[in-house]
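Dear colleague,

Following up on Tuesday's group meeting, I ran the structure prediction for the two-component complex that the binding team flagged. I've pasted the input sequences exactly as they went in, so you can double-check that nothing got truncated or mislabelled along the way. The C-alpha cells for the whole assembly follow below. Feel free to forward this to whoever is handling the docking comparison.

Inputs:
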Amino acid sequence: MWRDEALAVLGLTLAVTVAVAAQSSGPGRPATPEEVRNLGAAIAPDGSGLPEGSGTVGAGRDVFMARCSRCHGDRAQGDVGPTLVGGLGTLATPRPLKTVGSFWPYATTVWDYINRAMPFDEPGLLKPPEVYAVTAYILNINGIIADDTVIDARSLPKVRMPNRDGFVADPRPDVGRK
Amino acid sequence: MKHLQRSSRRQLLRMGAAATGILAGPHTLLAWDTPGTLGIPLGPYGERSPFEKAVRWRRDSKTPETGSSFTPLQDSVGTLTPSALHYERHHAGIPTIDPAQHRLVVHGLVDHPLSLSMADIKRLPSVTRTLVLECGGNSAGEWAARTGPDVQRSYGLVSCSEWTGAPLSVVLRAAGVRPRASWVIAEGADACRMERSIPLAKAMDDILLAYGQNGEAIRPSQGYPLRLIIPGWEGNTNVKWLHSLKLTDQPYMARDETSKYSDLMPDGKARIFTYQMEAKSIITFPSGGQTLPGPGVYELTGLAWSGRGRIERVEITIDGGQRWAAAQLHEPRLPIAFTRFRLPWRFDGRPSIIASRAIDESGYVQPTREALIGVRGTNSIYHFNGIKFWSVRADGTVTNVEG
C-alpha cells in the first residue's frame, strides 16, 4: 500500500519536475534574425533603424506626384488625405492647422509613417530611396530643408522640426479632482 | 403538479389577453389552445432575433478601410457589449490572419528574442477581466458642441467586453528584459502596421496579450487572433493584430502618438502620451433622438466607467444640474468596466434637463464641459469626459441641449 502511494507521489514529483523543466526553457522558441528582419524597420527619433539609401527633394517631387498627390493634392494642400503643408503659427489660435510642418516634432516620424502606412491603398510599396525622397520633398515644401538637401540615415535625425519643443507631459487629473 | 402549472399558466395567459384586449390569434404565443407552428431548427452558430435591429453606425467615407464605427449604446442592456456591436477604429482595414501562421516576435533590448505561436501564448497562465475599451477620441465633437444627435453618434466609441489572455509580463520576463530597456514598441499586422510606444512599467503591470473576447476568439475587427488589452488606457494603445514587441530605451514618437492622440492646449503646446482614460458617464435612456410616449414613471438608465478603477457613485440631475440625487448601481461594480445605473423618474410633461455624473474610487468627479474647456480650450480633440446634458421637451422628445 505505502509503495503505491510512494510511487504515486514519485510520479507527481516527476510530473512537476518535467513541467518546471519545460517552463524554464521558456515560452515559444528563439526568434530568428530573419523573423526580426521581416518585421521591417521601426524608426527611433535618434534615427536607429533607418536603412541605407538617400533621396533628394527633386526625386521626392516626382514620387509625390506619381503616388501621393491623388489623395493629398498636387500641392500637398489636402483632399481625401490630410493637408501636409502650412499651419506654422496657428497652434495657439482658435483654428489650429496641424501639419507635418507646423506640428510633427520629429522628421524621423515622417519617414517611419510613409514607410509603414503610405500610400494608403498600397502601404509598403515605396522602397527606402523613395521614402527618403518623399520625406525630403515634404520637409522642403514646409520650408524646413533647402532645395539641395540630401536626406539619408545620417541627415534625417539631425533635421530640427519647428514644433520640436511643442509637447509637454500629461498633467492629468487637471480637472475633476475632488 | 404539471397540470396545475399548465392550468395556472393558461389562466394567466387568458387574463393577460383579456387585460390587453388582444385575441389570441394562431401565430401568437397566446394561442395555447390551438395547434402551434413548428419553429426553426437548431443551428451551429446563433443569431439574434430578426426583430432586433441595433447596429453600429459610421460616417460615409471614400476610404471605408479607415475610420470609426460607433456602438449603439442607446440599445444596450446590462454592462457587456456584444462582440458584433463593439466599436471599431481601424487605420488600414481589417486583415485576414490565419492563427496557425501568426507569430508574436519579442525583440530589441532582451536577452532572449522570442517567437511565439498562438498555441505557445495559449499555454501561458491565463487571466480573464471585464474591461471597458474607449477610443481616446470618443465624444470629441462635444469640445465644440458639435454633438451627434444621439448617444451612439456622440458617445459610441466605447464598449465593454470580457477579455481573456496571458499577462504580457510573463512573456517579457521569459525574454529577459535588459536593464536599459524602458519602453515597448507594439506593432500590429494590419496593412499600415500601426505602432504605439508603451512604458515598460505599464507593460510589466497589468497588460494582457488577449486572444479571447466574450467567451470566444477575438473578432477580426477587434484584432484576431491577438491584441494588447491595456486596462484603463485609450483604445489606440490596445494594438490589434499584434505581431511585434520591441524593447527600447526610448519612445519611438510614432505618428499615432505625436500627430494624432496628443492633446493640443490653448497655449499651442500639446500633451503627449495621454494614455489614461478618466471617469465618464452618459444617460442612455432617455437620450437624444428618443421620445417618451407621455407623462408617467420611467427608469432613467445609463452607463458609467473609469480608467482608474471602480465607479463609486453616480448622481443624476433632472433640473439642469441644480440638484443631484444618487442613482442605484448594478452590481457587481468591476474596476475599469461599465457600471449600469438606474433611477425611477416621474416625467410630468414639463421640460427637463437631465444628466449624470460619475465619481470613481480615486475620488475623481466627472467634470462639466465648461470646466474642461476652461483648462484645455476646445482644440484638444481627445479625452472629452464632460457631463452630458439631454433636453426632455414637454412633448417627450429628447435632444441635445446644445443642438
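Chain B touches chain A through 75 residues (CB under 8 Å).

Cheers,
M.
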